[in-house]
Each structure stands twice: as structure tokens, then as C-alpha cells.
Amino acid sequence: MLQLLADFAQGGDVFNLFRYITVRATGALVTSLLIVFIFGPRMIRQLRRWQAHGQPLRKIGPDHSRKAGTPTMGGVLIIGAIALSTLLWARLDNPYVWLALFATLAYTGLGVVDDLEKIRSNSSKGMSKSSRFAIGLTIGCIVGGVAMSIHPENLSGVLAFPVFKDWQLGLGLAFVPFAALVVAGSANAVNLTDGLDGLAIMPIMIAAGTLGVIAYAVGRVDFTDYLDVHYVPGTGELLVVASGLIGAGLGFLWYNAPPAAVFMGDSGSLGLGSAVGSIAVMTKHEIVFALIGGLFVIEALSVIIQVVYFRRTGRRIFLMAPIHHHFEKRGWTESQIVIRFWIIALLLGLIGLATLKVR
Predict the structure, then answer these.
(1) Do 72 and 54 contact (CB within 8 A), yes or no?
(2) What domain range is 241 assigned to?
């Protein structure tokens, strides 16, 4: 745990650098990137040997036969790199760090079970949706309950609104299921977005980077006084977690760029989605997160709208849902969809970041 080296700093000692969150965040990014680069090729070879048929693909929709045989569960490498880099560089006396790790690892475990069931049955269905969602909500409730207990008293159980600092909605214990919906919704929305090579990983890195900056800002009293935003002491350390995610995501993108050598699977998409969702809850930026992760919101809404409309009318609004498959049906190439969705995610992230200053 390199952050402990700061305890040995004497005056201008070089170890004093480790007291700075920004230095340790950079260390986490580089460490997680190197972990994925070093262990990625070996893990991909192992996954190929173990998964005879690769990730089971949907039998309907665009022809993705060229992707047949591509192994899944690459998310285990991503999450492992995030966890190791966080444990190495973050202050482990910070409860927000442990809560973010809990949410990420718990949802990753759920995703692993789902991926294993798909591989075992050679089907794209996996475990039942109701069971997965129920377990996910339970994890989210734990995150919400713990967040309430460690938030400062004036923000505990409160929904804070962006732009207007004095606008607050006291939810009380209802904050727990609200937080659970944020975390579970984020995890499942990222899971729905993960349908094309590289489509989900870049937007999740953008969201993590944006939330990491927000966490750093709201965790410093001087910044919150200047920006006139809520002060949530201790959340600055979440920048280390977010940086670890960015480094691991960059490393994974090296192997996931078209044509993908490995898919992240549910173990990756659920874990990464819960990571950013939990950071939003801990920093009191749940509403802003709906904007920052707007691409994931759109993907999830396209599925909900499609299902509801079809059940009521027997017709479809989109050619296929999630919406990225709709554009495939319209003739967009995979690279066009991925890059254009990346641009949208970047713009939404910048707008979300701007809410820190707009008052």
C-alpha cells in the first residue's frame, strides 16, 4: 500500500508526494493499465481454451457471426486491475473507497455467475432476470444504507439538486431504495449498452473521469466554497478509484477494439456500471449522473419503450432494441455507431462537469 509511504514523509521528503490524491490517482491509472497489458494476453488465451464456443450470441438481429468464438468474461481482468490499483494507491482508512469496492466487486460476482450460466448452457439467456435484478437491488440497498451512515448529517438521506445548492429533498429512509435504483439502474444500463466492440468501455471511462473530478471537487472545502457546491468530506479519495477504472478501461480497449479479442461480459458491464453509480450516490450527484451517463440512460429507455409499446400495440418503435442495434438495422456500420456514441458520451460528460460551476 504505497499511500502508507506518505506517513514516513519528513518535510520535503519525496515520499511526501504520496499525500497528494492527484499523484496517487495517476499511480492508480498507470498501475491498472500495466496490469491489463501484462496479464491480458495470457488471460485471453486461457479464456479461449476454456470457452470452446466463446460468448453465446443472440440468434436475432444483426449478423454478428464474425464474432462467434470470441471469449467473454474479460471484465474479471478489468475489475481485478481496478481493485488491485485501488488497494495499492488509495487510503484504506476511507470508508468511501471500501464502499465503492464493495459495490463493484459484488456486482462483478453477480455478473460472473450470469456469464458462467451462459457458457454452461451455451445460451445468451444466463440466470433469470428477476433473480439478477433482485440480487442487484439488495446490493444497491446496502450501498445506499452505508452511504447514509457515512454522509455528513446535513446530507444524510438527502437528494441534492444540481445548479441550485439550496434545493434539497429530504428522502429519509427512502434514500436507500432510491440509491439502490441508481446503482442497479446504472449497472443494467451499461450491460445493455455493451453490445458492440468498444461501445461501452469508452463511455464508462468518460463517466468515471467526470465523476472522479466531481468527487475530488466536492471532497475539498476550498473547492466547494469557490464552486458553491455541497461539501462531502472524504469523497476526494474516490478519484483514485475512478482513475484505476480509466487505466483498466484503456488497457481493455486495446484488446476490445474491433475486431474484439475478448468481450467484457456481464462480469465487466455490471461491475463497471455499479462502480460509477455508487460514486454518484456517494458524491450526492445522482441527478447529474443521469446526464453524465445519458448515453446509458438512452440505451435503457429504448429497451423499456420498445417492450412497453410492443406489449400494448403489437408493433415496434425501433427496428431493434437497444438503440445501437436500431442504427445497425438502418445501415450504420459498427465503427460509425461506436465512434458517434463516444462523441455523444463525451459531450454529455462535459455538460455534466459544467454543472459544478453553473449556479
Answers:
(1) yes
(2) 2-354
